[in-house]
């Protein structure tokens, strides 16, 4: 398996010069484990690396005290906004109202500031004072070992729900599942099927100007930044998918559109936040899907061995057909 991070050029050149020079100085092993870069005006520069929050000094070293860290300036944040928006923040208003901008390379930059409200919706964000650069990595092959539980010869794809706490690798996993279903797996005598991804938060395919920055397979179509309940129905009507993949269901309209897909004979692979089957069984609307045995497989994730740890795979009657913890190691390529 390859943990395939696009080289850092797209990320680096979206950072203000002072911050860029600090990140460049990081040791290679820290760059490989980098998950987030946090900029807050008048606060110490912080990174989330190898599952830990750390402070960074001006010379690119990890320091234990915020007093020794580089202090992010107002000018740094102004420059960051110019770089990620290409000096035209209005061109990104649709993304900005969701609290982030996706930049070239598939990296997502979260943004905080003062929200301008229009009715019950966020119109835009002004007085921006904080940025979270999330490092996108694609783990090619992360789903290989579990695909035999999800697909089978000649063209069966099991309806699958991935259950995971935040930051445990669920999006990385469904991205690789999409690639494998789309491209096919000769070792499983599975030839590949048409996949439609409804990517409401632009996390799975990480589209930039409509083009997926991640490898999601050559039989895959993507609706970017489209609400799940709308996109699922659009895909059914227009793209004749065998499988629809989306992330983080929970609203009643999500469940209703999934029912439409299942009634149309389309397989569903999706995710939900939770700490196990008992936890998600207490969630409104999800409980009915579990009681009705609408999913054939449940994949339960944790961080026990690091992000992407598979704790168990259950069948439609909640019997364990795979027991972990198990995690396939990644080799990071920058």
From TrEMBL:
| Keyword Zinc-finger on entry | no
Q: Which domain of life is it from?
A: Bacteria
Q: Which UniProt keywords apply?
A: ATP-binding, Nucleotide-binding
- Fetch the SMART domains from UniProt: AAA
Pfam families in the record:
Spore_III_AA (PF19568)
Q: Which residues form the AAA+ ATPase domain?
A: 156-305
- Residues that span the membrane, as ranges: none
MF terms in GO:
ATP binding
Q: Which PANTHER family match?
A: KINASE-RELATED (PTHR20953), P-LOOP CONTAINING NUCLEOSIDE TRIPHOSPHATE HYDROLASES SUPERFAMILY PROTEIN (PTHR20953:SF3)
Name of the protein in question: Stage III sporulation protein AA
Q: Which organism is it from?
A: Thermoanaerobacterium aotearoense SCUT27
